[in-house]
Request: fold
Amino acid sequence: MKYQSQAVAKPYFIAAIGLFVGQILFGLVMGLQYVMGDFLFPEIPFNVARMVHTNLLIVWLLFGFMGAAYFLVPEETERELHSPLLAKVLFWVFLVAGALTILGYLLVPYARLAELTMNDLLPTMGREFLEQPTITKIGIVVVALGFLYNIGVTILAGRKTVVSMVLLTGLVGLAVFFLFSFYNPDNLVNDKFYWWWVVHLWVEGVWELILASILAFVLIKVTGVDREVIEKWMYVIIAMALISGIIGTGHHYYWIGAPEYWQWWGSIFSALEPIPFFMMTVFAFNMVNRRRREHPNKAAVLWALGTAVMAFLGAGVWGFLHTLAPVNYYTHGSQITAAHGHMAFYGAYVMIVLTIISYAMPILRGQEAADPRAQVLEMWSFWLMTVSMVFITLFLTGAGVLQVWLQRFTDDPQPFMVVQEKIAVFYWLREAAGGVFLIGLILYVAAFFVKGGERVMASNAVADTA
Amino acid sequence: MERIASHPAAGQNKALPGDFAIWIFIYAELLVFGIFFLAYAYTRAQHVALFNEYQQHLDRESGAINTLVLITSSYFVVMAVNAVRRGAARRCGQWLVLAIGSGGVFVVVKLAEFAARHAEGVTLSTNTFYMFYLSLTFFHFMHVLMGMVILSVVAVKAYQGAYNALEHTGVETGASYWHMVDLVWIVLFPLVYVLH
Reply:
């Protein structure tokens, strides 16, 4: 660890992994409820399990992004973090607020939660992914502002690199677009229209900047390739990602009452969204092939390459599958959407956070890389989680194709629940794949506890002998 | 007439002038416009009468003027690259200013055209033809602005002496992008304004 203040990243990463475990457990509960509707009813109804599954995902990814920023910004700016204390305080604020919110979902009915948190003063609840009580949303804004202040002051006072500036732009964008979660118009079309400004412009806009900067940072570190080369590619990739992603918002506007031209704009621009992801894959493999050093952290290199490939497959290929308006007419809101959502979130954002954790955590624990035995275990977890996610995606795609066929693309459409019965076999298979994912996740956590010969950091070793 | 000197930038003895990354970008841009043009052609085939009728409402004179303006600006850009290859960095900057000025003329003419359509009450939702006309021309318009920004940065650096006869990759990079903007218009103008 080059800078003492980087240590504040550690609790963020630990919390991220803890919440990740929670997310997967609720995912398994929900997966079972797809085929056994009354499983855990009435304690944990399906809608609550779903809310917890998706909200935990967002919260742990945010913990991961913040941890990543606290870790890489001091190194990029070549100075200590402006206020490590503020980072620690905000960590506890965010963790407690997040935990209380999840407990609120689980312990009281949602309508009662809305009453308790005085949602009627500024109604923002009741919308998918933005279910958080208004008070929690305000808390998120406060944490985000404090975080941006801390990171921003550090970056502006120190060395300015492309990596840190792109990261800062992405994080500012994340905060700005979240403000649309407070805009809750009565008109349902307007509501949905701006709802996507949070949901879509996060994952297909500003989050991509965060992803690109973290990936670039890790690749610079593990390959030793010139910063200038990596930065140039980063510019081209994020320019394309932003142009196609921002106008590509149109692929959500096909059927919600927005003007018809969105069918053209959305189709054409989002058809291009796979290109920057493909470029990212080519770029990552290229950089690793041109590496000037053999970094001892093989697991981090694996995660970095995995991110590039899985983001392309999940976001690029599975997104393209149903992004054209004439196709989406039949597929929107089906299990094909769920298939895409699973692999895109895992491939792009889960994996990039696991990449930076894999790279940073050993350093935060005073080693350049984890013990080789721990790395082997971590790589096992990589393959188990990644392959099972591929299967989850394939099974959901199978379910989705059959669903669209029986329910929509037919002269004799069958009712929703009748179709759900018919595609149950896919849900069982998905649940089995989810079980394998959990095993992978357990191994992932276990890898942190593997005891091995202590490998001190090369820099420390040099200092000791000097 | 200035002497033509064509020495590519040092270490650039490959087929593509300028930075390789800009070519990735150029191909991606051409792909977007290409898809848009194909979508236009396909839709036109479905609604021939509608497209023929509303094409008559377009201002072909201003389109033709803008075509000449952009081709002229590309000539200026060629002369700018030519100048820097001879080591005349200041002269390069002057040619670039002329190119940016031409871009400015294009922008003014285009804005007048948009204003006239706006006054007629034409919007993206008026009909399918106008949807394509406005989308394509506006998307291209944004590229002209982007190209002008790029050329401005290159011009400032040229005046500051950042380029010479051996190292002028930046000039070639900006020039390549500008030619792409010109090329797209040369296809767009006949396709949307003239052919029917």
Notes: Chain B is about 75% helix and 0% strand. The interface with chain A takes residues 19, 21, 24-25, 28, 31-32, 35-36, 39, 124-125, 131-132, 135 of chain B (CB under 8 Å).
